[in-house]
Amino acid sequence: MNLFAQIAVTATLGSVALVGYAQTGDVFSPQQRNLWLQKAAAAMSVMQETVKYPVRKVAIVSDTAAYQGWKAVEAGAAAAFFDTSLKTQSGTVLDFGEHLTGYFSCTFALTTTSVSDAPVRLKLTFAETPAELAIPFDPYPGGLSRAWLQDETVTVDYIPSSFSLSRRVSFRYLKIEVLGSSSFDFRISEMNIRAQTSAVGEPEPLPAATPPLIKDIDRIGVATLRECMQTVYEDGPKRDRRLWLGDLYLEALANACSFKNHTLTKRCLYLLAAVAAPDGLLHACAFDIPDIHPQTGTQILDYALLFNTALLDYLKNTGDRETALDLWPVALQQTEVAKTFIGDTFMYNGKPIWIFFDWRSGFDTKAAIQGCFVKTFKDACELAQLLGRQKDVATLPAFTAKLAGAARKNMFDAKRGVFVSGPDRQISYLSQAWMTLGGVLSKKEAQKALKTVLSMPEAVYPGTPYGTHFFIEALIACGLHTEAREYLLQYWGGMVHKGADTFWEVYDPDNDLLSPYNFAPINSYCHAWACTPVYFIRNYPEIFAK
Amino acid sequence: MNLFAQIAVTATLGSVALVGYAQTGDVFSPQQRNLWLQKAAAAMSVMQETVKYPVRKVAIVSDTAAYQGWKAVEAGAAAAFFDTSLKTQSGTVLDFGEHLTGYFSCTFALTTTSVSDAPVRLKLTFAETPAELAIPFDPYPGGLSRAWLQDETVTVDYIPSSFSLSRRVSFRYLKIEVLGSSSFDFRISEMNIRAQTSAVGEPEPLPAATPPLIKDIDRIGVATLRECMQTVYEDGPKRDRRLWLGDLYLEALANACSFKNHTLTKRCLYLLAAVAAPDGLLHACAFDIPDIHPQTGTQILDYALLFNTALLDYLKNTGDRETALDLWPVALQQTEVAKTFIGDTFMYNGKPIWIFFDWRSGFDTKAAIQGCFVKTFKDACELAQLLGRQKDVATLPAFTAKLAGAARKNMFDAKRGVFVSGPDRQISYLSQAWMTLGGVLSKKEAQKALKTVLSMPEAVYPGTPYGTHFFIEALIACGLHTEAREYLLQYWGGMVHKGADTFWEVYDPDNDLLSPYNFAPINSYCHAWACTPVYFIRNYPEIFAK
């Protein structure tokens, strides 16, 4: 089913400061940054546009068994809505049948014999999940801007007229309330969303014999990825709508085995490079609207390190040596800056920087960052070799070996067979995962470490799809295929069973209302870092698609 | 002071159905209606545009002595607002120093080192009076569309950016509230209103010796008229923004001795003619946006009758016989249709129609409509004579004399010297006024009738500037100049003393919160029918400007 037929639109270079991103004490030359900016602009995707319509009316009904306590139930055909006075239908919820991202328009018409003599005041609330239409937004308790919530109050001056919302919205459900009107009667005669993505077409279908739940997980992951593929890989099309380096890494993995829009990956790699900090360390995120700029002051060490891995994967997937060579100085510089965070003991020296890995409260990142140093430095060396730039990293293999040695020496509890992290010797899924991905343990040791945490109820497990991705990747890396499959089925399958249309930013099987921002409706319910089952299922069919 | 410098903009014909306004059983031919529509379109004014800025910050302060209990007090220079973070100034009220009608824009800027990473949610409330910013709008108790209230919730996607509100606003004060934002800091660096009117320049100044209160009343009346002069004579630029026949009559009077934009009067006369009902009776109001159309079902007999008077005045003021001849069939038809409301006794026969004259609760209109028949039929005869169309009204003078006779016979209380109206023999200001304007009484009788009601506390007095206009006109007509001057000074002077920037739709000296719509903030505080002191002061300088 080709949901997104290609409609050619004029490619735009976007708004880009072609004079470069010159900074004081810059390790990169203005010419380099200018080149990267230009290449990011030139790699702008042709946006695919599809006009979509509501498919039915629904009622949002309280149900303790439903996800977040609310569900949408059938309440009639959409056609009836358009035939009927809006004044008699205030509060109607329309269901577009799928998660969509784009621009909303509608047409207001008078009913017979009416004359419009006053403006009409409406409230439009766009929602990714039923609960967003049931939980009051105000007074707003959340920790992010209230403005991300998609409720808009609209004044319609005259009827008949057409209305377009300038704001891009991301939703499946639309609630329409009449807040003010005069004695005349009117209806909405037509509405649509110009849905937008830079993903073209549909990925190859999975083998027919693939189990239904795996098919569902893949389908929802593909939808998640498609929605997040805009002019950059966005982290979430509802919120925060920007390019994060960590999400880019996961989206590029999923894209490479589904939509294969490698140009988008290229654009994002160049874009992040162009706006790196003066010392060369990449910002954790960047924006391309209204112009290309980084979120200055926001740097995540583990994200920056992943640039090497992402560029290596890109090169392997595309053979595009030109891009890889262009960006090699950036990749290399991540290892150079990373070294300033490593002390004489070949461990993280405590220099302040945000180390993320996961939103899990209380998670100690020291072991994970040690494993991440090892993993990404090895990737840097492999990338250098593929590009014939081994001399740039001549000392890195030995340095990396010392990091691995320090990890074993200082963090490995040989008796229990697990890595411990921090003063409280925390045992977590992600400490084992990153040490495994770094190859710090033998395959057998890694299997033991991972199995151990899986069997320990008190082990700190990941709280997000992002962290979960690396745990599953580690399970696969050491041959624990059954465990990898079970973990994926349990985690993403849990979201499927709870009715996900797209996969969520935050998913805790035991707490539907968990929010890093103190308010579940501000969570993103279509979040890039949750799309990676597409990668697992399609990249490891022998594990997942059987 | 030339506030509104002429900025030439392209004149537009507006959206006009040049196929005419054909209707079943139409007394006018499609060709006639088509001609009137085309002439209305061709008479579109060039809109005058002036860019205006806030002049200061104010605080809205409770004060039982202030109009409606609230006043605006100085709270600093406007410049400080633009230099300062908006997040620290949520709730600021900016004062533009005068009543303005047009299109609002502003520019959002980041403060140093900030990066915009989320949308911002703002509430903008535009207000004509301080109380509109203090009285909560919701839950809305009013009887007209809530959407007329000028509070807009706005999502600003990115900063820096520019924002324009698509809705036209009419206001002096603007309150700005931040409803949602992220950690980054921002300000509004610039804002303006593209103020719009079809009035050009400023009227002649009054003689220097004119008393200050008369000068104030004239100045505020001129501002009221200017604001209501848009693509049509609007009744109120905040609400209801349409052409009412009664308001047109008063605005045309004031315009003829101030801005002299007779083309606007012409456009409005043609426009109302073009959309008359099939029997030829004019609709009480019409719209020219989004296209020219009447408010079907809304006809006011006294308004329709005034078309003759308005066209007669137009001809006298301009000498434009072509227009008067074009529209003579419409004027004549008003007298023809009016006859169907007159019975064998030469009195109103009770056939249902809206008879207005004033919003005063309990006012009995029977005497006033009798006087109005006489007055406007006489005007029709004078108009016919000027146009050489006496034969069209050959029987009208005798008919009118019978109406006058019936009025005296059935409604005049000779003993008290006043007209009484309705079964309760109500004595009202407007009964006497309209009989005076119709010449039903001798000058001496009229003086006595008007003086009598002025001395009777229980006499029903007008509740609006509209009704008050005709009472003052009647005082002048019978030579009661001192009383006319005092009444005007007391009524419009009362609004001046209460701080009016423009004159109000409703003014009861004893009840600031009186509203025909059950909610004072929905009243119009710049209302066309309140502009007539401009006419009185400038047309009768010997009475008012001394």
SSE layout:
2 copies of one chain form a homodimer.
Chain A: H1 30-42, E1 48-52, E2 56-62, E3 70-77, H2 78-83, E4 92-110, E5 120-127, E6 151-156, E7 161-164, E8 169-180, E9 186-197, H3 212-228, E10 243-244, H4 245-256, H5 262-274, E11 285-287, E12 293-294, H6 301-318, H7 321-339, H8 366-387, H9 396-411, E13 412-413, E14 418-419, H10 429-437, H11 443-455, H12 465-477, H13 481-497, H14 533-539, H15 541-544
Antiparallel strand pairs in A: 1-9, 2-3, 2-4, 4-7, 4-8, 4-9, 5-6, 5-8, 10-11, 11-12, 13-14
Describe the structure.
Two copies of one chain form a homodimer. With 546 residues, chain A is α+β, with helices and mostly antiparallel strands. Chain A is 36% helix and 17% strand. The first copy, chain A, has two domains: 50-197, Galactose-binding domain-like (Jelly Rolls, Sandwich), CATH 2.60.120.260; 212-260 and 295-544, Glycosyltransferase, CATH 1.50.10.10. The first copy, chain A, has 15 helices and 14 strands. In chain A, the strands form three sheets. In chain A, strands 1, 2, 3, 4, 5, 6, 7, 8 and 9 form a nine-stranded antiparallel beta sheet that branches. In chain A, strands 10-11-12 form a three-stranded antiparallel beta sheet. The two termini of chain A are 23 Å apart. The interface between A and B is large, with 41 and 41 residues.
Keywords:
546 residues, alpha+beta, Glycosyltransferase, 9-stranded antiparallel sheet, Jelly Rolls, 2 domains
